[in-house]
Amino acid sequence: MSHGFRVHTDRLAKAAKEAHGHAERVEHHSSKLNAKTRGRLLGKGKYGRIVEKAVRPIIDSMITDMSKAMARGHRSIGHGLEITRKNVDDAEEAIRRNLRRHQDDRDAVQLKLGQRVLGEDDLRDKHRERVGQRVGGLRKQGHGPQRHLDPTDDMLKERLGKPSPVLDGNGNHLKDTDGKPRYHQQGGYVQTTDKIDPAHGPNARERLGENAHMDAEDMSRKHKCDSFSTSFGEGQDDAFVHADLYGRGRLNHGEAGRQAVTFSPEEAWGPGSNHHERFRGFYIDPDNPVEKASGAVNYKQVDFIGAKIKAIYDPDGNGGHKLVTMFPEPLKVRNR
């Protein structure tokens, strides 16, 4: 380097900034390529030639120019940056030119009669349609949606059945020392009879009579339900589908037979402080199962804070798994 040469760092910085700006513009234009073009940029078709014929040679030239500039020392760096800026300009123009060349009727979206480009509302509708189709498919796999997504609140209550009274040898309803009627309990929760399977659908008692108490999947046996009758909330089809997808990701595909996986809502849906609001359910008040005056069953709403989701899968015979059932599982300590 000549002893009389002084490096103008501010000019070098300005030139580098300008070159960087041009590079960002190229990236900006490339990001506007439509999905059809982006999908074929690296292919062998005409769009692949945009990279092959326009961009790649210019990028190679940029590398060569900068390598030469660095080899000759600082005096050539500014010149190299100017050449690089010109190369970026050329690349930018080459992309525009190639896109203009290929923007003909063959590249346009071909709409059939009655079709239109989907807007934001249309995309939401399409998403809901796909979710509905997926839920319909899960209904055919097992009873998850039928018992833990579709039921109304009244159907969830009917599933709990009627409190089972404690009777003496003569069939009289026994009372405790306070005069309150006694009901069978287990683990601190009321035991019941005459449970109605929500999988029978609405108005099952009116339509089926005593058969409403039979299991919809096996009419030879009585329907069973634990202390809690729980479900995903109304309109939570999307949440149900995503929970199933997460559950499937937790399966051990090398394991034979039925598998049960339990996970938190946060694991399935991401961080959130109100995921428990996506659930609903009931249990019978252990302290006052039946209202004395009316004889109506006294239901309590389930507190789902801290609840988990449990999903059960069986092999489908084709190397995959089918969802048998999936439901929110509340903490007993929060529901007494």
Order of helices and strands: HHHHHHHEEEEHEEEHEHEEEE
- Cα-to-Cα separation, first versus last residue: 86 Å
Instruction: Determine the strand fraction and express it as a percent band.
Output: 5-15%
Proportion in helices: 40-55%
Instruction: Describe the sheet with the most strands.
Output: 3 strands, antiparallel
Q: Structural class of the helices, strands and pairings?
A: alpha+beta
- Widest sheet, order of strands: 7-9-10
Arithmetic mean of pLDDT: 82
Q: Which spans of ≥5 residues are poorly predicted at pLDDT below 50?
A: 33-44
In total, how many beta strands? Answer: 12
Instruction: Name the shape in a single word.
Output: elongated
Question: What does the model show?
Answer:
There is one protein chain. With 336 residues, the protein is an alpha+beta fold. Helices cover 42% and strands 15% of the residues. The protein has 10 helices and 12 strands. Strands 7-9-10 form a 3-stranded antiparallel sheet. A hairpin with a 2-residue loop joins strand 5 and strand 6 (218-222). It is elongated and about 105 Å long.
Keywords:
336 residues, alpha+beta, three-stranded antiparallel sheet, 12 strands, 42% helix, elongated
Summarize the structure.
The protein has 336 residues and is α+β, with helices and mostly antiparallel strands. It has helices at residues 9-31, 35-40, 48-72, 74-102, 120-141, 144-148, 153-160, 204-208, 237-249, 265-269, and strands spanning 162-163, 185-186, 189-190, 192-193, 214-215, 218-222, 229-232, 259-263, 279-284, 299-301, 308-315, 321-329.
